[in-house]
Amino acid sequence: MGGDETATSKAPRTERGKRTLRKLLDAAAAEFGERGYHEASISGITQRAGAALGTFYTYFDSKEQVFRALVDDMGHLTRQHIAERVPGNVDRLTAERLGLEAFIEFVREHKDLYRIVMEAQFVAEDAYLNYYKVFAAAYTRNLAQAAEKGEIRPGHEEERAWALIGMSVFLGMRYAVWSSDKPAKEVAAAAAELITFGLSPLARGGGGN
Amino acid sequence: MGGDETATSKAPRTERGKRTLRKLLDAAAAEFGERGYHEASISGITQRAGAALGTFYTYFDSKEQVFRALVDDMGHLTRQHIAERVPGNVDRLTAERLGLEAFIEFVREHKDLYRIVMEAQFVAEDAYLNYYKVFAAAYTRNLAQAAEKGEIRPGHEEERAWALIGMSVFLGMRYAVWSSDKPAKEVAAAAAELITFGLSPLARGGGGN
DNA sequence: CTGTAACTTGAATATTGACTCAGGTTTCGA
DNA sequence: TCGAAACCTGAGTCAATATTCAAGTTACAG
């Protein structure tokens, strides 16, 4: 559970090596993102990176291993990006809105990597599971804390966490991966309103009957 | 948009042929469901079906074609199952709860096929897109109608539709595909409560401040 | 019964692409 | 400057498997 690099005896030892590794990682992200895991080829990756085929195996043990590395990377990047955009001291409902907004923007800027995360479900299921379990656990905790403070109604934290993650993921897929037609702010606002008040006509100053 | 079989000159013409086709479809669902598209092999399918390798190509043009056939099939089955469990005359919020409940149950009974739908995103993106677009369109329409009747607050129907689908999908994944620990009813109830009232502590008779 | 269309069979073909390896080239500390 | 460690190269190996096909077998209309 630490933060090791995926342990290999393959870490680069010189500047040149570091540069090459980085080129390969970027190339792999592009190749996997564009063509999907199985269509992607190692030779495609090395061509993009401007390296020879064999060089790949200087830094990675297998095709699957790079893929996993990219999934883990994406987890860190996502959490980091969201954390940066969501101040620690706002209430939960505001945090939800800002978080979703940040998430959609992030996906838009990293479509390739995001596609990789989604495909991980079928290529490296445990990495995928882990990716979302970490999110779900954090989410569940945040909801429970917010409930204690009276910022939200308590109960069903786990189910809510998964439901909210599902919302984010699908809104991300629809409004970031497939099309960026609507501003992230707008989509996030609509979702936040749903999350906050639900669909009930009685909510808010809601009228009669 | 009709209900054609996936047009082939390959439809069976005798009873024996029909039986074989069915065996192959069932075997394909199992093989793809268990091993995923790329790990699955035609010979695996024909072995499960108790048929010779070449027989497969009597009924299908390619591996991808069976896969697509299964995705389409799943769309029909899902909609049908949900429609059966959700009476036409209940209000929207009740329909949401019953629909989600039916969906989770359905996924539990068809894990294989459901996995196939999810994987379609990477194998047959257009089939996948179509699967969800049909859902989203129907959903958007239902929400708009409910809004007109005053059953829910109006606005943002499309975003809401995708958000709600995302909820269902992730709850299905977590509580049906990955584990069936909690009863579908319970999960559906928790989600329905979220959808209806949101997280706001002010909703319902909800207390002060 | 009989002929033929429908169906079945599984060995053979063809392609693809992950991974290896033996032989260079570059880097960098001493 | 020198040499060993690090790094790079890309042709070749090898296994996997989607798809084809020519030779049977079965169903069934007439």
Automatic annotation (TrEMBL), chains A, B:
Top-rank taxon, per record: Bacteria
Record's keyword terms, sorted: DNA-binding
GO molecular function: DNA binding
HTH tetR-type domain segment(s): 18-78
InterPro entries: DNA-bd_HTH_TetR-type_CS (IPR023772), Homeodomain-like_sf (IPR009057), HTH-type_Tx_Regulator (IPR050624), HTH_TetR (IPR001647), Tet_transcr_reg_TetR-rel_C_sf (IPR036271)
Residues in the DNA-binding region annotation: 41-60
Endpoints of the signal sequence: none
Designated name of the protein: TetR family transcriptional regulator
